[in-house]
From TrEMBL, chains A, B:
Biological process according to GO: cobalamin biosynthetic process; methylation
Highest taxon of the lineage: Bacteria
UniProt entry keywords in alphabetical sequence: Cobalamin biosynthesis, Methyltransferase, S-adenosyl-L-methionine, Transferase
Entries under PANTHER family matching the protein: COBALT-FACTOR III C(17)-METHYLTRANSFERASE-RELATED (PTHR47036:SF1)
Protein name per the record: Precorrin-3B C17-methyltransferase
Tetrapyrrole methylase domain boundaries: 6-212
Annotated organism of origin: Candidatus Desulfovibrio trichonymphae
A UniProt-annotated Pfam family: TP_methylase
SUPFAM superfamilies with a match to the protein in the record: Tetrapyrrole methylase (SSF53790)
MF GO annotations: methyltransferase activity
Pathway annotation from the record: Cofactor biosynthesis; adenosylcobalamin biosynthesis
Family annotation (Gene3D superfamilies): Cobalt-precorrin-4 Transmethylase, Domain 1, Methyltransferase, Cobalt-precorrin-4 Transmethylase, Domain 2
Amino acid sequence: MKPAPLYVVGLGPGDAACLTPQARGALARAQCIAGYHLYLELAPPELLHGKTIIATGMRHEKERCAAAVEASLAGQETALVCAGDPGVYALAGLTLELLESRGLLAVVPFSVVPGVPALCAAAALLGAPLTHDFACISLSDLLTPRNIIEKRLAAALEADFVCVLYNPRSKGRPHLLTGALEKARLFRRPECPVGLVRKAFRLGQNVCVQELSRFDATQADMLSLLIIGNNESRSLGRYMLTPRGYRIDT
Amino acid sequence: MKPAPLYVVGLGPGDAACLTPQARGALARAQCIAGYHLYLELAPPELLHGKTIIATGMRHEKERCAAAVEASLAGQETALVCAGDPGVYALAGLTLELLESRGLLAVVPFSVVPGVPALCAAAALLGAPLTHDFACISLSDLLTPRNIIEKRLAAALEADFVCVLYNPRSKGRPHLLTGALEKARLFRRPECPVGLVRKAFRLGQNVCVQELSRFDATQADMLSLLIIGNNESRSLGRYMLTPRGYRIDT
């Protein structure tokens, strides 16, 4: 049996209007579609109909990738779906690692189909928070030691990067975000805007910009993305803006 | 005259297969389309046909945004196009600033339509270089003082971020990239992979992964994006991988 193409596909934030034709095409061609069950719900239902579906739960990333590799080896064209972009805290990497460990890198036709990442979806809804240099940090300590997370966050704040925080707060880990905001207050003005976007471009979307000094960490959860401005960021009505250095003559 | 909607639209890397339906819809609805002339060439020609087109040259960003705002004020539904995502080193910010300076924030219906950013397009072609925390830095010193660029790069390298370099090298500024690579050699192993992607998903696309110790800076230009791995990144055949911390049992 000749292995069939294996695509790791970015669904973007979730609305079908944000799904690229390239991603839609990969889903349409695939005979097997694998993914975290909540992400499969973001895919257009008509593209799942009649296909082999491999739905797995949270923290079952290895099983999901392994099942997708097996399907490809069995000759089924396979799409492994990720929310946002497959390269940003998602499964492009783990799939490559699995292919390597099994000696399949040159055997399975592998490709990554990019998507609109959560950071760009959130930024679009906030206005323009990312217009200058930014750092992207996941606060999840499941796979990364806390001291590394804290070191990176401190370095990014000190060097005045806009800071994008993925996985900002989970029930089992409420304090990392509190600590991150305390750290931010050491390096940013009290009025520095913090943008919170929950369920960008999805039902129940919520967008808000608050001052760092007043930001309430308990609003954030694992469906949220947080953007802390740099020292020039400011709020503009309901928007958040990080200027890039243009001179605006009024 | 009632101002018409003004969209700042991300075209993604350039191939129509990477243009979201949301972005396509905004271009289709727009009566006026403004953009850097090379970016207008990335938009599907049938969506430009019969429209008012405002094409401006490099470094004319303010004129471009101002003309788009004028068109909106004149009642023309207007799309201001950007390559990649409009929030990443692009015109979402400048447009908001112009609206603010003219007191038009509550007058012009403004929105940002996200796109697949160059960093995700490049990452997809390289495999999985971004799977862990990363920092995004523009090496252009037109709008940012060199000492700030250098400080941010040093901080990001020291804290072991994957480093994404936009605008890595121009004819007038060939030495900033050379200096950046020298700095990287202080913080990374000689075999740390550096990915270079030129014209992602466009005619003339070029993708390569080289060891940091051997990386030739002269390959890079303003159409390239460079990704320097972290201390765990490695090359895997033609791919570049930054692992996230999963245990792979072979």
